Protein 1
Amino acid sequence: MNDTLFGKIIRREIPATIVYEDDDVLGFKDIAPQAPVHVLFIPKNELIPTLDDLQPEQAHLIGKLALAAAEYARREGFAENGYRVVMNCREDAGQTVFHIHLHLLAGAPLGHFGAG
Ligand code: AMP
């Protein structure tokens, strides 16, 4: 269970800057931020490698990640200016850690989403 880099963060075996926690979700700062605010939200109690592995009975966990990100954005005061959430799935999206996670990016205009 949770036997990934992020599992080690959940178990406090490696350090992370934890900024959000509830019964189901942990949020911590990305070590290589791609925006002024870059936080990762992960499920604490289930190891789901990618979005493609998500089972219907686990769907509520994705909602919990989204709600945690939205709550954090309101709490930190950037909800009104806006933010982006991203989930990378496997190689073509550049996924590097196989414990499902939601990226929250904010703190500056992020540009429009595009392939180029
Ligand atoms: P992804 O590329 O979607 O799999 O995202 C994995 C993210 O984890 C990347 O943005 C990395 O910068 C981030 N990351 C890797 N190791 C750590 C760590 N020890 N603490 C915090 N973030 C990390």
Note: The pocket of adenosine monophosphate is lined by residues 5, 16, 28, 30-32, 40, 88, 94-97 (CB under 6 Å).
Protein 2
Amino acid sequence: MRLGEVAEKLGIEEWRLKGALERQSVQLIENFRPRYLIFKKDIAGVERGTAVFLGNELTVVRGFPKIMRAFYLVPLLRKHFASRVAVEEKMNGYNVRLALVEGRLLALTRGGFVCPYTTAKLSGDRNAESFLKEHPELVICGEAVGEKNPYVVHRYEEAGDFGFFVFDLRNRESNSAMPVLERNRLLEEYGIKHVRLFGVYRKEEAAQKIFEVVRRLAGEGREGVVIKDPEMKLPPVKYTSSQTNASDLAYAFRFPYEYGREFFFSRIIREGFQAVEWKEGEKELEERALRLGKSILLPMVESIKRVKKGEVLTEDYELEFASEAELEEFLTYLRRQGVSVVIEESERSDGHLKVVLRRLRHSSTDRIRSVLSGRGE
Ligand code: ATP
Ligand code: MG
């Protein structure tokens, strides 16, 4: 399977790659042309989410690196960054990497899979396509946002049903990222949308600006910021509002057994540190406590009641497809990933297929049911 060639291209030893394949830390996807390898874990410095397409040529698309979170901002800025920081909006959608593979524009998820839905939505994007044709060594990293997607549904005025906002241009093979201002200039030249840049600040004055921005964003139902070294030589840091945190928790507690405990823990701990750093008084703390408590308790109570009535926990997604074949391809993709869905509604309108896809949350339903029927933990 050209393992030697792949290993050499990635700069890792062949026996490591071979071992990883045997342990399934690297997986071969055979039902796609060209076939490709996916890294399910970090291996010898190659990030989880890396995909290697085994076409006539090898096309490596390195995984998108994990972004560190700031819990307590001031000392972290001082310690972590050089002299200045670029503050960008962090948009709440899902991570997409766009790359040209054998002349075709493909959209990869964070995990490294080619997502047929996202690929269909973005492959008509002439600007992105001509950009990648002229810069085939790059990968466009951005956030897909809006109300019609199968992953993260969040309304953005500027996005409509489906939007895509770029936050990184990286070298596909080395994963090095382009400096922030140069990146935006280049994207603008091609008419490609990027996330908002609030400004570039000295690191000593940045925290106050960031607190202001994050408070304002919170009021607008927006997530927060990512703080970057303008040169992109140092890893970025994310910082988000308590409101976003609460809505993440509210979402996750609808299906409490679907998420790892770390997901909840980290989101609760953040609230403590932010409250102290923002020097909150009694009234603000009270508000924060109420928001946090409600986001945990209310959706969970709702879900337990639903299961008690005999319902299965579900979640609906509104999607749009160009054809039946596109829908079928996406359903096949989801089922292969082990996602359980049914079509709740489908309607043809002006050449499009509008579908409501219902995802069944079996593991939370089953666990809640068994507790209700007398099981202890
Ligand atoms: P991670 O593994 O990166 O922590 P996560 O699922 O916890 O992933 P988030 O908490 O949403 O993700 O934060 C990281 C993600 O934020 C990135 O993977 C990217 O998709 C998204 N993002 C949105 N806006 C930006 C931006 N301006 N710069 C970088 N990433 C951004
Ligand atoms: Mg996110």
Note: The chain has a mean pLDDT of 96.
Protein 3
Amino acid sequence: MAINYNERIKTFYLQGERFSYIFRITDGGRLQPLHFGTRIKEQDVSYIAEGRKTEFAPTAPGSETESLDVLTQEYPVYGLGDYREPAILVLTPDGGRTADFVYRSHAVLKEKPKIGGMPSLRGGETLVIELKDEIYDLTLRLYYTVYEKQGAIVRRATLKNGGEKAVFINKINSFSLDIPRCDLDKVCLQGGWAKERGVERSPLSHGIFEISSTRGSSSHHLNPFIALCDKNADENVGEAYAFNLVYSGSFSVKTQVDQLGITRIGGGINEKDFCWRLNSGESFETPEAVLIYSAAGFNKMSQNFHDLYRKFLINPAYAYKKRPVVLNCWESFYFDFDYKSVSKLIEKAKGTGIDTFVLDDGWFGNRNSDKTGLGDWSVNYDKLPYGLKALSKQCRAAGMKFGVWIEPEMVSEDSVLYRAHPDWIIRSPKAEPCKGRHQYVLDFSKPEVVEYIKRVISDLIKENDVSYVKWDMNRNITEFYSDYLKERSSELAHRYILGVYALAEHLTTKFKNVFFEGCSGGGGRFDPAMLYYFPQIWASDNTDALSRAYIQYGTSFCYPLSAISGHVSASPNHQTGRITPFSSRAAVASFCSTGFELDLNALDEKDMDGIKNHVKFYGEISDIILKGDLYRLLSPFDSNYFSQIVVSENKKKAVFILMKKLACCNDEYPVIKLKGLNENFTYEANGRLYGGDALMNVGMKFGNDLKDFETVITVFTAKGD
Ligand code: DGJ
């Protein structure tokens, strides 16, 4: 049993293989965290929370002694003397803002209940705690699911209005946690378009720090991931507490260090774009939050995330299944293609081993640039006179599958759809609507809009024998007003994302054999909720090998390599202009779900051989990349190198990569100690034998004369296999 309750000391024990999450019910009926860290035996550890007091701290209603301002809490409320960030703020029918929630009961469920209309992790034993505000008849339920092997707790909350009148939820976190220390650093994944998920570390300090998005999507800029860690934590040592929201919309996670050195962390839907009317009898469910503990630094934290997401989040039909090796034509043509050029590209791909051709943006409506045509999901016969069917047929004949690009949440002003339904977009009621990439966002809070898109995209897939769909989303949302929701438009940001989930659920359930890839102007919606529907996500519009080394390194903090879609593209690179050898581009694209993004007709014979070799090589290592354990060895953020190794579960195979950023004359010789191998195995690589113990303790030595961006990739195979 992973969950136990000790009635005598009113303490809950959530026990994993190597971690414990312990909290208790205080005399005032509040939930108080006691320990989130290395596993300990069940015992009374309430001493850790005792005796905190300070002047000027108000006492809680009905208590002479309990002050919420100094109490460590699992789910703090607003307005009753705790001046730190609340987890919940409810506007009551009388205009008050102080709903209070105290413990009533709890239950342990064998199976984790699903959330309605939102992605969630599959799971087992789940603790549900019921807290109640008796005055307004509001019931708050907190859910905790334990993942024993992955060092993880998954949390969420629901609120039910049992009162007669509506209340308004101003804020409702997926989780909150008080950690009784503040000598910590924080690590975030920050960036922007074409430079997603850069690793940034800084000391935690007093006051509030926030990672957030108000863009209507989880964003390129700050991923809904944060880790708090020991000052001396690195990839291999130190405690790390990591948090990731299973949410694709506007979010917020805040840390706050208080006067007594307690660190509060909590997050969920961003309250800036959120005020939800909860009518009598209705319930509201938050998205989930994943809490991970690692006693062995960031690498273990990441392995826990990877294992958790592959086993319990990503569609099991695809999680460990070989991914299609794709040729995507975006960087081959952009909008400038016709039947002849596409058909020639497909012909050229024949026999290379590439197994899916994906026709990117520009195949529909009057889409000749990014200014027109979005929303009209029928073929542009001027460009493709024989329709998609002919291309799909040609792909099959060439031994490949056929895929298409869609951007179902958007509409261009110059489109049949917009002319027919100008009222279907998100816009302020009176002012001229904002555009982003010349396009409008469809109001996915309107059921008729989602129903219409369900129909047209279903027809598109069915009629054209489509096996692969790349689902893009190329602008941020502005003017959160809906003429459907009207005065309830403060619910739009969340209802929009519920509409996106409804469409994704519908299409991925209806077309079980179609492979869906997520995308948002590159990696603008790279989050666990998208991963629930899309087993892999296009990580960035930046396809340059060096930039990708950074992006893939940062992304791996939280997401498995199989979730990262990365392609070999042209040199000079279209985004950075950088010239890199084919071998480097292929090597970096091997450490993810691979594919190609270039005009094969522009390649010489040598590079065409490179394509074939890469497909073949990737076929040999893809099982390790999909299922293996990742060890980050050298960070491009902190060194002149990027290096990782992925080791198969039985440790009999491993793939290693080393990229040098810039050549240096008379440079130091890099010696890299490998990780994760079996010390008793003898490994063969490049015709030489190495002891696993030597590789991990003596290390591998590389030349000091590697050129700019030169990349070494090595496969280690245990002898006798
Ligand atoms: C942004 C994507 O990230 C690109 O790969 C490409 O699909 C374009 N959109 C098409 O408009």
Note: The two ends are 38 Å apart (CA to CA).
Protein 4
Amino acid sequence: LYDPANDSAGVDRLALLTELRHGIDAGELRLVYMPKVALGSGRVLGMEALVRWQHPVRGLLTPGVFIPHAERTGLIGALTLEVLDQALAQTARWIAAGTATRVAVNLSARNLLDRGLPTAVDERLRRFGVPADLLELEITESTIMADPARALVVLEELAAMGIHLTIDDFGTGYSSLAYLKRLPVTTLKIDREFVDGLGQDPHDSAIVAAVIALARALELNVVAEGVETEEQQRLLRLLDCDELQGFLISKPLPVDVFEATFLTRS
Ligand code: C2E
Ligand code: MG
Ligand code: MG
């Protein structure tokens, strides 16, 4: 028999969701920014916006704590639009300051099943006066494979607007190469799991080399995520990877620190 006393996790989850719904409206979501740099020149080519929740009682929460719950309910729709609003408002400020680079926002599976997403994104680009090619959307393979036909329609509309599309965590999902060939994406981002073992685990090194070769063959840009050591950077350069992102360059930073560290140099 169901006994609520045994289901504290369920109650906790419900409380978190109610609080998140309120927290989005109350402006408790914050973005931190992580640079993406060119492997050759070290130039900052753009950044990824990552969401944090400044919870009034629990403190600063990372996305792993609340994104999965938001995904299971409809709340991920509102969360994504809030993240887009903040990232585009910030980009508009950087445009005004003459320091704008491309900003990447993460999408969840449900976002791609929403046929209204392209219109919602378009409306925001216009409202904030941000050119479409300053926006990048990161999607994972599993996001696409949830309903490839429907996702493809949404992705094609977004790509036609001039938005850059990146496959995140590449190598961890089950995307078929047949779909990859047809997807209007510009970039593959190699998952941290493989970059981690680069130069140490021969299988990881082989996978990284193969993904870079695949990207070259498909004329896609390739980014390595989770780069933490000089040695990994050296090997990625040898393998002809285009860009890197990781703690070696920077942890995700609050906007003022990101600006002071990365945007005054250019
Ligand atoms: P992701 O999109 O693959 O983002 C990269 C994650 O890896 C970030 O964690 C980042 O801090 C971490 N990372 C990057 N480089 C390194 C490194 O060198 N070492 C280590 N140890 N970690 C590194 P974070 O911010 O906790 O985000 C986790 C995931 O949550 C993201 O993975 C993304 O899937 C999701 N997420 C974050 N923000 C959003 C958002 O606004 N919307 C949605 N739908 N999902 C988001
Ligand atoms: Mg990402
Ligand atoms: Mg990733």
Note: The pocket of C2E (ligand 1) is lined by residues 50-51, 62-64, 67, 80, 83, 106-108, 138, 168-169, 192, 225-228, 245-247, 252 (CB under 6 Å).
